[in-house]
Design a protein that fits this description.
Twelve copies of one chain form a homododecamer. Chain A is 42% helix and 16% strand. Chain A has six helices and five strands. Chain A has helices at residues 21-24, 29-43, 55-68, 79-82, 84-91, 131-148; strands at residues 5-9, 47-51, 71-75, 97-101, 123-126. Chain A has a five-stranded parallel beta sheet with strand order 2-1-3-4-5, sandwiched between helices. The interface between A and B is medium-sized, with 22 and 22 residues. Strand 5 (123-126) of chain A pairs antiparallel with strand 5 (123-126) of chain B, so a sheet runs across the interface.
Chain lengths: 149, 149, 149, 149, 149, 149, 149, 149, 149, 149, 149, 149
């Protein structure tokens, strides 16, 4: 049986729906989980969906995913911009990694324009709100399919 | 009848397939056009697919699209990093704009990390090769559908 | 009954009294808790006083405080200068937030002059040692009173 | 008899109440003087409250205060960010100096993030509007009392 | 009986042997522990060898070591470059601290050239692979012996 | 017969009236042409009024104007900030050149504060909307008259 | 009766005619006053023309003008580049402010390219020598007329 | 028959002889074409000599040359310093590319010290006036001969 | 009779002897005046010795000195580092100007390394305490003598 | 017979023992030579120990060592931070190179944080005083042994 | 009899052929000397060909060449990027100076992009390997001939 | 008998009188030696006057002077701006060191504004041509006398 795709969410994403809704929208993280489950079902794959506020836990999850996942959708939120540890963990991964952001980070503060995740990701998707997760799942599925050919 | 989605390609993209294939892949621009036509057909929409090496022509096309398109998929290539004129043209658009790059620009030279397009785009998709255009079309279709609800 | 004011302390503050006493003084964190309890009593309010070395835990506490506190006194210590996650958590708060530092950080190394907390705080108090916490509590009390008028 | 606390105000603060009220509030400088007089009375001390638009006059007042005041509350306004002369004058002071700002300067233009005053001040209080002056007086009183013990 | 030397390892070092072996070599962290145990035995001292992915836990361990260790060998990995909290914890230590890196960090990305650990360390050893830990233990032993003379 | 004054407009100015009207106002480029024709008539001179989106065409027009115009009013729009080619073309001109901007560019994004045109212009007029063109024509007329005296 | 337009001149402008005539020309400040008086007469308005070497006096005059003038023509000279106090004073003005410079500052030293005045001005005119003051008066008159319509 | 060497000239070079003759000399572009024709004749090769003011046209010519030329002599003039599109076009070329400048650009403004052309060129020749084109042709001839051995 | 040498002192120099004596020494400004009077007497010249805290007054004095002095010894103190107005005033002087500092400013904070005075001065003398004024007078006398030969 | 290890010392190291003993300690360079001879004896290898103040001589010695040494211990002192020539010489070496510094350079001036030596060295050891040379010899011996296995 | 052309080579060039042959090629410095002798013979001139590792000796040779040479071909190697002394020596030369580099330095590390030699050179030739010396000799011969006409 | 004052001159100063006379004047180094000998005679002291083009020799001379001189007058010329080795040598000196420059270096290129010599010098004198050496000798004499009191 195929390995699941891990969808890893970083700090403060547990507050979605209440946190700055003009930037992040009204959907909760639970809504996004549901959306992803449906999309994964359409694509014929499993997901493992998690959230943490702690950098070290996120690092550990990425390490785990390198072993147990077929791909990673990563919204590292604030750690995107400050965590070399996340970068180092990603470098150990050989499965596809897609970086996702709900908002268009390039319209925001300059310190959000730097990403430690991007150089270690296969690709980046940002600015499409919750739908960005669906696009990321499709991209991963496509990448996995491409490898298997 | 619905307006088409304009897919606008910047300088040197006419060389795809022969230009630095280790970065850009073996697909030609014609292959990408075919891929987009198929995807658009699946999504029930029309496309208008163009390429130019001239900044001024790209500016004019974006101005036109603001009138005649339902959305824009823009791969401004090198002008992404140097053209304030492209940015100013995009600011006049009220339709959704999705910025696409074939390669993950964040893995490349520092001057490719700055984008004048991003702050005026709805979202960004990069690093997925030709498939990124398909994801962009899906994202546009979703955004248009969202507006119409 | 009124909600308490949360007083949240970041990394290494558990060592106060022994850590670099020429910079931070001889008072322990327990001494500061006592001082705050007394000041709160004078102001007729409750406090919830905590310390953690972990960024993620501090983020979680700030999220909690947004729900359960009437105001936050935050000494994020080293995370002041490196944590976008703390900033993002603070942005979800609608209650008053006062940033406190024991020492005058502007007399110290340049990397301590940048604060990710300040742009999301109501105000800043630094350089007064433990008494700064008392001033912060008074400021919060004043701000809460101002809102209730 | 104890020396008074000098409260020195820099350029444009004479316009308070009319100048950018969304940033600085509706209170006039005269209102703040009244607030300070009452607070000083509660603390059992005298104040000397002044305002000037001229950098050189502010320098001279600081020099005077070093002789005749028991402490200084300084809102140097625009000179905070540009005046090395104010810094040099403050360095001659051995009495406590508290830097005050009505607004949270860290939420404003980058050139307001640099302060020539802070490295020579005992502490900094900003973002609490007129009430910040009261907190500053309390801090000074506490510092003087601390010295006398 | 003499206190042990604490050997503290930061994020992703648990992956040694599998993570980027062209940079970090084939030895696992367990191999390094064995190497250190043997070297310590030759030097007549004890070691306490740990690894964590979490910044806050590393901070707490350094605080503990300040009490219970005779010296610290610290490979803070990614936190070397981002953690002011680690720096602050190290500043409370009076025992010798030796910073170790397996690879020569100065040959890698620019953001790895900055170290928050170095200013608080007694010395730095990098680029010798696992053998660097042995050199660090020898250096600590020498430093302790120097103090006891 | 006297040579005309060339009024050269850069990219996106053809959209005036519809493009970001809160910044650029409601007047169209045709309105500005009318305004300039009237002002030129009052000043007793001819104008040649053009617009292009292409950098190279703007360069060629400036080269032409050096031969056939008595002065140049230049609103290079986005090329103001990015075009060394425009600068080089202007350096070949011995007739007066007045740089015009509709908006006050110093209130906008930092990359609009740099101008390659200014060092090669006689003078700069910005922030007065369409009326700035009239002021520029008067300035040119004055400069030409000054030469002829 | 209509309020006058205040024409405020900063440091060293009293030396015009003798100071670096290759940059500033042969006209004295008195010549410019005469020129302005004539131009104002043509426009049917009054002027109040002043010069000072002192930053604080310039700040005070701007504050006064906010009350008693219908518009301000400001040549802040050296204070243009160093005075946040002048900027703060200008921000209190609701009447039109036109920044004027005799020389084209963009052809000179880099520190003259930054202006604290521009972000608070309606518009900027530079490089036309004394005639720039006449253009500024016309611009103000136009702006006042525009408001009254 | 051997392919010709393409000699491509960028913006404003059509003005040579009249444009800033103290920097660029008295020779016209036609003079340089004659010089190159003679030198090519001596070297036994053909040339194709062109000039354009438009970035996009220069990009297209470089793309063409990659197919139809045996080598490229490129004086990109102002686009040397601003055009990533020219760089990208050059990267598709496998024939030798020699960058030429008439003046020594390192003696001029700082923005002329950066070249997007150099990293993609085989070599650089600058500062020798029109004779630099002859040296470039000799260098190309040498490089082609070297390949054929 | 020969014109006197003006010795102009900037802000806070009136405090010499009490201000940071470890940096500036124990001599008062009055002591320096006496020292200068004696040295001038030996050199057979007159002096005019002044001090001010106000930038504008220093500017006016420099303007005056351009008319009435045979040379200027200028210790602009803090205004050295912030005043473009002082620089502009000095540029109008044709008499020799010697910049003096009591301390070696290059050993102090970075913002004291920039001098707006130096580019307009004949020479600079710093680090010799009060004796630097005597050296400056000798240098001026030498320069005046050199002109008269 | 095995080749010796060259121990090359740069400028001012001949002054050890007298030069800034609080930074560099009381040991002379002769003491270090003795220490190295003993350590080499324990390791069963020969050393060649030299010092020079001249950059060019150091370059020549490194070139020689590439031929005649089995490894290099290099304390380039000040040339560490300024000499590209030393870097280029090191790049020609295939034997192990260990960079040594007596003091922890990262606690000192910023210009000492940059090292041209590090990118060409096998490893770096700093902060252990003379004992660092012994550690370096051990490291070299280990590296040589590793190669021979 | 005509003066010779001096061909001066800086540090590490004596290693050519063995040093990083993928960058510098297989030719030795002796091969280049032979190449230059032949080319000089064709041009009817003499050469004086030298190499040194010492900055001071290179400076002295340039000083000598100013007297005894008719032109200088200078490959300052590493000193190109660090030596103000070489720049100052070149400024005393009135004979033509051509800067040569074997490799295209603009494709290498950023610190090799800065040249202290270029601003004092007549022209620059880089990237053509040993043949670049021949082009440089031809350029010098052309420049000398141009002077004699 | 008193130790002499060493007057040490760096690279290219042997060319004085011929090198850029508009900057450095017509006096030769021999003229300056004569001037210094006379001034020393007036002051009742001996001098030792030297010049070298080699950084290492200058370093050695400074080391010698620390032993055998009563003070050092140092014109390190180009090495002022690039030599950390000179700085380190100066730090070993306990005798007074006066940095001299013939020209006002602050009026020249930015890279001449940085001095590695200044932080280790007692004082700096620049801009007075050869007379600056006399002023330096007087300053040294004064400093020595001050020590002996």
């Amino acid at each position: 049986m195929a390995k699941p795709i891990h969808i890893l969410n970083g700090p403060n994403l547990n507050l979605l729906g209440t946190r700055e809704p003009d930037i992040y929208g009204a959907a909760t993280l639970e809504d996004i989980r549901t959306l992803c489950t449906e999309a994964a079902s359409d694509l014929g794959c499993q997901i493992d969906f998690r959230q943490t506020n702690t950098e070290g836990e996120l690092v550990t999850w990425i390490q785990d995913a390198a072993e147990t996942a077929s791909g990673i959708v990563l919204n590292a939120a604030a750690y995107t911009h400050t965590s070399v540890a996340v970068l180092d963990a990603l470098k150990t991964c050989t499965v596809p990694v897609v970086e996702v952001h709900l908002s268009n980070v390039y319209k925001r503060e300059p310190f959000r324009h730097n990403s430690y995740v991007s150089p270690a990701a296969t690709g980046v998707i940002c600015g499409f709100g919750p739908h960005g997760y669906v696009l990321a799942l499709e991209a991963i599925a496509k990448l996995i399919a491409g490898k298997q050919e």
